[in-house]
Amino acid sequence: MPGSDTGNPILQESPEPQEFDLLRWVQLFWEHRWWIAGITAAAVLAAGLYSFLARPIYSATATIYVQSYSRTPLNTYNPTGATSWMEEEKFYNSQAEIIRSQAVMQDAADRLKLATHPGFREMQNPSDAWRALAAMTKVETVRDSALFKITVSGPHKEDVAKWANMVAEVYRDKTLRDALEVIRRANEAMLEEARKMQEEYVRQQG
User: Fold this and answer.
1) pTM for this predicted structure
2) Is 23 exposed, middle or buried (0-12, 13-18, 19+ CB in 10 A)?
3) Any alpha helices (H) in the chain, and if so which ranges?
């Protein structure tokens, strides 16, 4: 009939799935066994040399407690100037930078005499040992506390603990000096106010 397809439908044959030829792969591995063995041996040798030559890194941590005094002001005078929890948080956040500051690191390096330490004598400028100490020092806060962890990492196994403790000691001494200075200034301010009040009292009595 016109318009009708009287031809036979063409059936498409699907390709036969290829089977995994295990024997062929075994032959390939056997033919290239020396090349594969050489690559494997080279990788093992490189890993062994790295483990032997790489300098081990040791770490030591000192934990310190930081007191802002914002909750216990002296004679209603707040040495840190913190008047709210937000300002107190800013105070604590700033301490990590102060610990790693040049003032603290330089003092620690001087007390430890790092400029003459074998690990620093090869520096172009040994007096910059404090910079190397700062680079080896990491400061972290303990969440929901006033504790700070000072971690010093380096290849000197016998020294990193001493260095971490020294950084903590220098920071403690610095904060003590700062607190005493603030108290001294506060005392001077109160004495000045007392002097003015006394003069005013004498003037009124006269």
Assistant:
1) 0.62
2) exposed
3) 22-31, 33-53, 85-99, 102-112, 129-136, 160-205
